[in-house]
Amino acid sequence: MTDAGATADRVLIAGATGDTGTELLSVLHPTDLTVRATTRSYANVDTLERLGADEVVVADFFDAADAVTAAEDCDVVYCTLGTPPSYRHTIGGKLVDRTGVSNLLTASVSGDVSHFVHMSAIGVGNSKAGLPLPARLLIRGSLRAKQDAETTIRRSGLDYTIVRPGKLTNAPPSGDLLIGEGGDSVTGSISRTDIARILAAAPFTSDARNRTFEIVSRDGLEGTPTNLVDVDWAFDRVQADRDRMRL
Ligand SMILES: NC(=O)c1ccc[n+]([C@@H]2O[C@H](COP(=O)([O-])OP(=O)(O)OC[C@H]3O[C@@H](n4cnc5c(N)ncnc54)[C@H](OP(=O)(O)O)[C@@H]3O)[C@@H](O)[C@H]2O)c1
């Protein structure tokens, strides 16, 4: 397998208008990477360009052809897709968390993508104990969809990093993060900015290849952490490029 860090040029943020996608865009924009962003709505194109997207693709990932167009010529895919508020979080069915991710993954496998970074959640699969039962029941449909997506990603043959954050907040980044692995590890919350930095660095971090992490910030920690791991995140690779900063 090639190291995405050595060769990445164009990256895709699927779900760039979302709360996390927007944070990720602001982390990736000042780097030397060409950043392609997606939204389903033409009305969001100007905003994404203003936020620093080099290219914007209007795509609905329920449509496999849209997924192919979005992933075309990309070296890295960041997937921050999520279902808008809906009863489907509870009852499940056709959710972007499953069907959309699967279409994007298929497009990535048949394209040039060398690393797939996926934003999942604590509560999915073997991390279910990290989410209190009432919340688990409320969003059981989307948790199941996310579990299916994780399984598909692991079986895809692509290099991947699956990041399962705790509850997302708009707090300033703390940088002091607790990273667990194996599901039964950490529970709590984390700021979107912290998680965006982790997502950004993942494809350039050899330690993060083909692994699934649960992540919270130390000040958001609830309970006692177990199964903590050290990961040497390649934050340097996604530092601002000075020429791009002047734009
Ligand atoms: N909230 C939490 O505490 C929490 C905790 C852990 C994990 N998560 C998970 O983290 C992920 C990101 O969360 P977020 O709060 O940043 O998400 P968000 O603000 O709801 O954004 C979701 C994004 O998905 C896109 N999208 C939805 N359906 C689509 C479709 N059919 N085709 C193409 N794009 C589609 C939306 O794009 P457009 O509307 O522009 O088309 C939007 O950019 C979600 O999967 C969420 O479940 C959330």
Structural summary, described in words:
By secondary structure, this protein is of the alpha/beta class. It has a single domain, classed as 3-Layer(aba) Sandwich (Rossmann fold), CATH 3.40.50.720. The protein contains 10 helices and 11 strands. The protein has helices at 4-7, 19-28, 45-50, 64-71, 88-91, 96-110, 133-138, 140-155, 192-201, 242-245; strands spanning 10-14, 34-39, 55-58, 76-79, 115-119, 159-165, 167-169, 177-181, 187-191, 211-217, 221-222. The strands form 2 sheets. Strands 3-2-1-4-5-6-10-8 form an 8-stranded mixed β-sheet, with helices on both faces. The chain has a 3-stranded mixed β-sheet with strand order 7-9-11. The protein starts with a helix and ends with a helix. The model has no long low-confidence stretch (mean pLDDT 94). NADP nicotinamide-adenine-dinucleotide phosphate (NAP) binds next to helix 2, helix 6 and strand 7.
SSE arrangement:
Blueprint: H1 4-7, E1 10-14, H2 19-28, E2 34-39, H3 45-50, E3 55-58, H4 64-71, E4 76-79, H5 88-91, H6 96-110, E5 115-119, H7 133-138, H8 140-155, E6 159-165, E7 167-169, E8 177-181, E9 187-191, H9 192-201, E10 211-217, E11 221-222, H10 242-245
Parallel strand pairs: 1-2, 1-4, 2-3, 4-5, 5-6, 6-10, 7-9
Antiparallel strand pairs: 8-10, 9-11
Helix pairs in contact: 2-9, 4-6, 6-8
Bound molecules: NADP nicotinamide-adenine-dinucleotide phosphate.
